[in-house]
Design goal:
Order of helices and strands: HHH
Largest sheet: none
Structural class: mainly alpha
Helix content: over 70%
Length: about 200
């Protein structure tokens, strides 16, 4: 009869711990990768938000310049119209020149009015883009925090050989990843994260 070697229960326990440690370490590395992606998304969102804010400010400044020019042409046109309304010593040729100039000022006033409306539309689009990014950014922040805590708890689970701590880290990582994904692709909206 052949002898059967019974494995030492202590060795089996050590191998299980080593296997658990490796799996937990690999999972922690995955958490770190997801954290990096979330941080990148958050940083890009802030940059895009600031850029949209700057561009909308530029558009509003341009809008103000158009409004000023529109008012200048309107006031010049009104002065000429007042001059034409007075019985004066304008000769036919002078009167025709003033009428032509008043008509030109009226056209310029209309042109600036149309241009300012186009600029206003563009400025509002940029503000909407800024606001959209502002709404998305907290999701990245919450995702990053939860993923960082998941990395810490996974590391503690390896040191303490605690499967419960590891499962807790997994739950944190999944919730953190969900927040980060929601930052990229809006799936859900939490009212507490919005300032409206």
């Amino acid at each position: 009869m052949a002898e059967i070697e019974v494995p030492n229960p202590h060795e089996i326990h050590e191998r299980g711990e080593t296997s658990f440690g490796r799996r937990a370490a690999l999972t922690t590395a995955v958490y770190a990768v997801v954290l990096s992606i979330a941080a990148l998304g958050g940083n890009n969102t802030v940059k895009e938000m600031l850029l949209a804010q700057q561009q909308s400010s530029d558009q509003w400044a341009f809008y103000q310049a158009k409004v000023i020019r529109e008012h200048q042409y309107r006031s010049q046109k009104m002065l000429l119209e007042a001059q034409l309304a007075e019985p004066s010593s304008l000769t036919g040729a002078e009167r025709a020149k003033v009428e032509a100039l008043a008509a030109k000022f009226a056209e310029e006033e209309k042109r600036y009015n149309v241009e300012k409306k186009e600029i206003e539309t563009e400025a509002k689009k940029l503000e909407a883009a800024r606001d959209h990014r502002r709404e998305r950014h907290p999701y990245f922040e919450f995702g990053e925090v939860l993923l960082q805590i998941a990395i810490v708890t996974a590391s503690v689970s390896i040191l303490a050989t605690s499967r419960q701590m590891f499962w807790f880290s997994l739950v944190l990582a999944v919730v953190g990843a969900a927040f980060a994904v929601n930052g990229f692709v809006p799936i859900f909206k939490l009212p507490l994260l919005h300032h409206h």
